[in-house]
Amino acid sequence: MISSFIFTKLNTSAILNNNGDDIMKKDFDFIKQNLIAHRGLHNIKNGIPENSMAAFKKAIEKNYLIELDIHILKDNSVIVFHDDNLERMIGIKKELKHLTYNEIKDYKLLNTNEHIPLLQDVLNLIDGKVPLIIEYKFDVLSGRLEKESMKILNNYNGKFVVKSFNPTSVYWFKKHYPNIPRGQLSSDFKDEKWDFRKKVIIKNMLFNFITKPDFISYDINALPNKKIEKIRLNKPVICWTIKTKEQLKKAKKYCDNYICENFEKIL
After folding, report:
1. CATH number of the domain where residue 139 is located
2. Alpha carbon of residue 172 to chain centroid
3. pLDDT bucket at 21, cuts 50 / 70 / 90
4. Over the stretch 94-129, which tens digit does the pLDDT of each residue have?
5. Cβ–Cβ < 8 Å for 212, 18
6. Alpha helix (H) ranges present in the chain?
7. Is the preceding peptide bond at 241 cis, omega within 30 degrees of 0?
8. Within a domain: residue 169?
9. What pLDDT shows up at residue 242?
10. Is the pLDDT of residue 143 over 90?
11. Residue 74 φ/ψ, nearest 5 degrees
12. Does residue 15 fall inside a structural domain?
């Protein structure tokens, strides 16, 4: 998918036609207004799994921003879930892209009473109470998830931004919804078993000059980084994932806000 981005998505017309995005003023300072709960305020010891309705309720109670992940299913249902398969969270070796919502709706997250939620249900719950940072996963061809999710988000009145590791997703929003703040995810990927070309492209954010992200979401374990420090002079940098007090101290030096877990330990 990343290599197809190079050969089919990026061309001279894409470089020349920026849809006025370069001069568009966007107000998204809200991404810095409070700490960000990674996949909601989850705590499995208390029966609250990640990306669950219970985790989002807890985050709202604390007035934390919410970071969540979305996928698209075989029937075009948009769900809130991190992995591209069910093995870690459900214990079943099945890929999401081959399943319908009717097939997964009764599965329980990590043997709790929580189920995999639809994006629409999560939006109904949050209802603009706190801002959202929505990560677009990329186990299907770019454009499909983005298009179907925007059918839902177009009717949502709350504040949100979007982000992805996949530059094709970031570019899709530049082209179709340039008014929505968009972010590029990145890291040094030292421990990722990704295709080498994919690593090089996303690590070095090679297509930022075309996709023009409004902010960068960067791995705390890959900081400090001279390139990120330079980018931060003009764009906000949101780091992930803060799990210790030491990481939080480091993040405050290099980032503008922090996606966190283990709040009881880091604060």
Report:
1. 3.20.20.190
2. 15
3. low
4. 999 999 999 999 999 999 999 999 999 999 999 999
5. yes
6. 2-4, 12-16, 53-61, 87-90, 101-104, 119-126, 144-153, 167-176, 196-203, 208-211, 226-231, 245-254, 263-266
7. yes
8. yes
9. 98
10. yes
11. -60, -35
12. no
